[in-house]
Write a structure and sequence with these properties.
mainly beta; single chain; four-stranded antiparallel sheet; 11 strands
Length: 124
């Protein structure tokens, strides 16, 4: 079992920044990928970014490339999502997820564990 706890959400004006964190606990040595997804009520969940834990490879959705950066902090079994140049369309509930092993980074059905989510609101 793996437990994921997100933090760092909040409200910010367009152009601002937020840093989301996800701390994993439990069988963290088995994690292949950790990713961030977001969802707006009434819309499908979409992949934002992911990171291969062993390879260090990073993956980004086109909508966030150049603005968001995913990174890992091994000592704390944590993954961070630095979000810069935020836009109102980034407003969503953001979820951290972990997969064993790392397969389709952008397909939520391949992720085994999910956090409770943290809300991000960007005003214009």
């Amino acid at each position: 079992q793996v437990q994921l706890v997100e933090s760092g959400g909040g409200s910010v004006q367009a152009g601002g920044s937020l840093r989301l964190s996800c701390v994993a606990a439990g069988l963290t040595a088995r994690i292949g990928c950790m990713g961030w997804f977001r969802q707006v009520p009434g819309k499908e969940r979409e992949a934002v970014a992911a990171l291969g834990i062993l390879s260090g490879s990073t993956y980004y959705a086109d909508a966030v490339k150049g603005r968001f950066t995913i990174s890992q902090e091994n000592a704390k079994s944590a993954v961070h999502l630095q979000m810069d140049s935020l836009k109102p369309e980034d407003t969503a509930m953001y979820y951290c997820a972990a997969s064993f092993p790392c397969r389709r980074w952008d397909d939520g059905t391949y992720y085994n564990y999910w956090g409770q989510g943290t809300q991000v609101a960007v005003s214009s």
